[in-house]
């Protein structure tokens, strides 16, 4: 097996264990928190809290998380390093850019070449002077669709994938079926669609849409368990069970899209309107529900162990 880049250094892909494929540690509006830090509070307390929560997750049987916190979500790798050094759980970090509409002014005036340059550097040399390298590439398409600036990001990420072999993971709005737009653009750029997770597919029970994505070879991120405003846990379990029944367990990955701290919504995690949106929901509730719905232990292991390992393994990515 090949190596996988993590916040505490490269590991053999066989050491990944059980993986949640879309979790954040901190999601922060950086300029707000820098100028109005009262809500964020004391830095070390936030780090201590993250250490405690991720230790709980490790104790619940999860060994690794992929943290797709790209530029636009408050990524700050030195903070992640401080957390990672104190836990026995591995964190895979992301390059890329998160926007639904427009590029940040910095990139609008420099274009796709600067995006590509930065993304490749994060993968090959690491983030700034941290020594931590990106293990995934992140991009987003939401309800506004493929705006001109979003298309620039998608194509920059696709070219980074082709240059480095690093796998891609996305944010989508499943109701708007924008995963198909992502696959089209990635295919135009020569991306190996089997190296792509189309994110947030668990937000819909439109099986025809999900089958279209599967037929193109990508993984589906069933990765928002606990966000009941889109689809309840019961409905999400039903969709996963049906796709497993159809023989697609080898194209599904599981997660919550949760975090230790997110300032987009007022209140502390877990948030009162979303009591199940936390790191432990899959381990404590979803896995038993999948078993009760007829999903085999073998298929659960495929979704949590085999698929992440195959997706992240640098041997399968051409090396980087």
Summarize the helices and strands and which ones pair or pack.
Elements: E1 3-4, E2 11-12, E3 19-20, E4 26-27, H1 30-35, H2 43-59, E5 64-67, H3 77-84, E6 90-96, H4 105-108, H5 112-124, E7 136-141, H6 148-164, E8 168-172, H7 179-188, E9 196-198, H8 207-215, E10 219-222, H9 233-245, E11 252-254, E12 261-262, H10 281-292, H11 297-312
Parallel strand pairs: 3-5, 4-12, 5-6, 6-7, 7-8, 8-9, 9-10, 10-11
Antiparallel strand pairs: 1-2
Helix pairs in contact: 2-3, 5-6
Task: Summarize the entry for a quick read.
This protein has 320 residues and is an alpha/beta fold. It has helices at 30-35, 43-59, 77-84, 105-108, 112-124, 148-164, 179-188, 207-215, 233-245, 281-292, 297-312, and strands at 3-4, 11-12, 19-20, 26-27, 64-67, 90-96, 136-141, 168-172, 196-198, 219-222, 252-254, 261-262.
